């Protein structure tokens, strides 16, 4: 973690989704390596699954920049999508569970194979574990590459917390980050909630971010 010892990074609060801002760890290495290997995939469809805030969208953006992919949200999918799919070699479906158009999804899967395209699907759980009404879609969902982003390990937790503090130009000692890591739940959602409370206390309530504040937030979470 030598690069993480610089506890205040010099950039304004923003979300960076490029490859250099993605922190690689055991939790997400399989998904990242498959994105990096494109187009040398064993199959045409890759499904990355993981909890909300686990980095799926970051990986999708890396893939989009790498492959010039067309990105569509699950809740935006309708019959008009095929014209755009035809124009691109690579497609990304984000928030896959939000699409209820199973016949259209099945047709997209077929089109990917027929036209030798590539499809990246982001979902909360592996798509071969989803209950479908359409048997053909259930069958097709089993013929993909799968990469699951696991709960964050200590190194990834350190990187996520550090980056969120740095994005907000908040100085924080390494020992306080280690204190947080030893007590916070191993959940991307819990980390996001924790950072939101940091924002609320530091910006809205004008409280300094110190060990006392951290203990207050962790107590609220529990």
Describe the structure.
The protein is α/β, with parallel strands linked by helices. Helices cover 43% and strands 11% of the residues. It is built from 9 helices and 5 strands, in the order H-E-H-E-H-E-H-E-H-E-H-H-H-H. Strands 2-3-4-1-5 form a 5-stranded parallel sheet, sandwiched between helices. Strand 2, helix 3 and strand 3 form a beta-alpha-beta unit. The longest helix is centred in the last third of the chain and has 17 residues. The N terminus is likely disordered.
Give the helix level as a range of percent: 40-55%
What Rg, in angstroms, do the CA atoms define? Answer: 20 Å
| Structural class based on helices, strands and sheet pairing | alpha/beta
Largest sheet: 5 strands, parallel
Strands of the widest sheet, in order across it, are 2-3-4-1-5
Helix-strand sequence: HEHEHEHEHEHHHH
What is the averaged pLDDT score?
Answer: 87
End-to-end separation in angstroms reads 28 Å
Low-pLDDT residue spans: 1-17
Shape: elongated
The number of distinct helices, counting runs of at least 4 residues, comes to: 9
Could you tell me the strand content as a percent range?
Answer: 5-15%
Strand tally is 5
SSE map:
Blueprint: H1 29-37, E1 45-49, H2 56-67, E2 70-73, H3 81-86, E3 90-94, H4 102-114, E4 118-123, H5 135-140, E5 145-148, H6 154-167, H7 174-181, H8 188-204, H9 211-221
Parallel strand pairs: 1-4, 1-5, 2-3, 3-4
Helix pairs in contact: 1-2, 8-9
